[in-house]
Design a protein that fits this description.
The chain contains two helices and eleven strands. It has 180 residues and is mainly beta.
Length: 180
């Protein structure tokens, strides 16, 4: 008889141990976000070594390890955010690698902004290059992403694995004119 009594007492104590006074906390302080454009959306320059670069690549770039340049394929596309679209220039820093260039010969890189042709440049030798060209203001919109495209012709196509290599890209961006 004692055993059921002890069990009932133990159960009652367990139930009472679970009860605690209601503690109320004040709600967290509310933060009011400033009106206007989000400054994080102003990203006029993309470096292939940036840890978050994959968020800005739309297509046609090979994967890479942090800290390196990146191989493009034939039609790479990038999403670039500029808060102020006026007075911008397309800027590229890239390399044409000798072993690839020996297979392709003269390469043409055609550049587009939001689907409209901006420029085309021919390169007759391997090496590191920088390219810049003013972008007409009407091609860009305030606080909207610009789609920058490169079209590379010809590209290297690996005989054994079919890998497509275009240019070895370091930087692409829409800089303020004469901002470098």
């Amino acid at each position: 008889m004692r055993r059921p009594l002890y069990l009932a007492l133990a159960a009652a104590l367990c139930c009472l141990a679970g009860c605690s006074p209601v503690v109320e906390y004040a709600p967290p302080a509310q933060k009011v976000m400033p009106e206007g454009p989000n400054s994080l959306r102003d990203r006029p320059l993309l470096r292939m070594r940036d840890p978050d670069i994959d968020h800005f690549i739309i297509e046609d770039l090979m994967s890479y390890s942090v800290g390196q340049w990146r191989w493009t394929r034939q039609h790479p596309r990038f999403r670039i955010f500029v808060a102020d679209p006026n007075g911008r220039e397309l800027y590229l820093r890239f390399a044409l690698i000798d072993s690839v260039f020996r297979q392709t010969g003269t390469m043409t890189i055609s550049m587009t902004v939001n689907g409209r042709a901006l420029a085309a440049a021919k390169y007759n030798a391997p090496g590191e290059y920088e390219f810049s060209r003013p972008v007409p203001d009407d091609l860009l919109r305030e606080h909207s992403p610009a789609i920058v495209g490169l079209d590379i012709d010809p590209v290297f196509i690996g005989k054994e694995d079919g890998a497509i290599l275009g240019i070895y890209l370091d930087t692409v961006g829409l800089l303020k004119t004469h901002a470098r």
